[in-house]
Amino acid sequence: MPALAVADALRASGATVAFVGGDRAEAQLVPEAGYELHRLRVASLPRHKPLAAVRAALTDAGALLVAGRTIGQVSPDVVLGGGGYVSAPVGLAAALRRVPVVAMEADGHLGIANRMLKPVARRICTALPIPGQEGAKFLVTGRAVPPLEADRDAARARFKVPPEATLVVVFGGSLGARTINHAALAAFADPGHYAAKDLRILHAAGERDLPDLQAPGPHYDLRGYVSGFMEALVAADLVIARSGGSVWEIAAVGKPAVLIPYPYATQDHQTVNARHFEQAGAAIVIPDAELTAERLTATVAALLSDPARLAAMGAAATAAARPTAAADIAAEVLTAAGAKR
Question: Are residues 313 and 327 located together in one domain of the fold?
């Protein structure tokens, strides 16, 4: 999604954009957005499985050759690495052909691909300041998110939530989050615990856990997946979530949040994300190990009983969102392309 947001900004400036990607979400989202997609097969390197690591290394070596052919066919003026596994072989192949490389990092640390591209990248655009990664090569831009027309009434109508109701949106990522799922179901089983008018819950629990979960009442909209999820955020009064890249989408629509970082994320980057927004005054952080229904109930009850605090947190989220991130990254890409010429 950050790459698509930057691509849209580039296209709006008159650039032609093509993607190189694998078989994950980009296989559907990129063509739907009207961009050409070149496919590349890559594999992550298992750290504790030597034989699997050897097979993955062979796959990735082949990906570098295919990436080189793709660069030769497309003949780009510049390559932007989005931070995923595919970006490493494509960026390295571009550098070998003296094509300028720009990279972007959506988390609070440099991932493997961006560590590989660091020596050849002209600029690395980061969502957050990263300790040890300072200097002229690094530019803090925030995380690019797609532009959105924030029509709260239309968003609420889509989810059948009355304009005057209080809506709490709960989600844990594409696969869901068991600790959040179970804590939320128990915490919001009785709306009477909260000083909120007509409390409604919209909970995207993930398809994995959904068969084992049951909504506790008509006020509780429990789903595996919510399409057009930004609309759900626009409709919300409060968001309860993990703190991966979605924290920037929450901030982009100016919503207060209770964040529960995934404790096993690489280099604990979800905690870095969550603490960033907590320090900005936009979120409350509950460590996953400390999340209980009782803790969640107390936290949310305190927030919903204090509209002024919710409004202040929402304003802080908007201030921290860096809404120009996509345009700023696009500008760096165009500058690199101009330098080549």
Answer: no
Find how far residue 132's CA is from the centre of its chain: 23
Same domain, 285 and 238: yes
140 and 160 in a common domain: no
Please check whether residue 103 is in contact with residue 124, taking contact to mean a CB–CB distance below 8 angstroms: yes
The CATH number that applies at residue 92 is 3.40.50.2000
What sign for the dihedral angle of Cα 152, 154, 158, 160?
positive
CA 319 to chain CA centroid, Å, is 18
What's the rounded Cα separation, in Å, for the pair 259 and 39?
A: 35
What value does the CA radius of gyration of the chain take, rounded to a whole number of Å? 21
Measured CA to CA, the distance from residue 286 to residue 55 in angstroms comes to: 39
- For the chain (length 341 residues), average pLDDT per consecutive 10? 93 94 82 90 62 58 81 94 88 94 89 92 93 91 82 93 96 79 96 91 91 94 88 96 91 96 86 94 97 97 96 95 92 88 54
Whether residue 268 sits in one domain with residue 211: yes
Say how many domains are in the chain: 2
pLDDT recorded at residue 209: 85
Contact predicate 220/202, CB 8 Å = no
3-state SS, residue 74: helix
Quote the pLDDT of residue 47. Answer: 59
Name the nearest CA neighbour of 258 among 292, 229, 296: 296
For residues 285 and 274, the answer to whether their CB atoms sit within 8 Å is yes
Structural domain of 10 = 2-145+323-340
Residue in the block written with tokens 């700023």:
328
Question: Is 117 in the same domain as 212?
Answer: no
Name the one residue in this structure whose structure tokens are 């993607």.
Answer: 19
Residues 113 and 10 in one domain: yes
How far is CA 243 from each of CA 46, 85, 108, 249, 315, rounded to the nearest angstrom? Answer: 24, 21, 11, 10, 19
| Helix 178-187 and helix 293-304, axial crossing angle in degrees, nearest 10 | 60
